[in-house]
Amino acid sequence: MRLSRKSTRGTQKSVSPEREPLSAVVGGTELQIAYRMGYVLNFYREPSFRRIEMELDLTRPEIVTLIFLNYREGVTASEICEFSGHLKANISRGIIALEKKKLIRRAADKTDSRRQQLFRTAAGRALYAKYIPTLREREQAMLACLTRTERSEFERLLDKLAAHVPQWAALDEL
Fold this sequence. Notes:
It is a single chain. The protein is mainly alpha-helical. About 60% of the residues lie in helices and about 10% in strands. The protein contains seven helices and four strands; from the N terminus they run E-E-H-H-H-H-H-E-E-H-H. Helix 3 (about 60-70) crosses helix 5.
């Protein structure tokens, strides 16, 4: 982040981020798009997930796992990692914790007994139902500045970026 400006004498004058326009700070990095995407996403995700962590005693991998299992049950830990981009070790720990809390159950895949499929329990569905409305409301608040047309275009562009992930995401696995 560039937080200094040259004065007329060529010396550096420090400018606090609070005094600079937000657009200058957010757009002032070399990562013009990724930084702004992260900025917006962090202000959506961080307060939301912290609240769920504190109020419902769930970790982020547990939250992500329950979100994905709401979409599709019977998946494996690897499939959740592919969807979320989370590390397998973190998702595996989350799955173990969810199982101990009796929020999910595992079952051997009928076609391959080495694969463990994951399913939510009634308690897991009930807990998900407690936090998803807050996430939906926060998403609506985040998108409130967009017109219907802008939102449609934004969603179209997000779909295009998401479809492109497999082409670049594995370039340099960290």
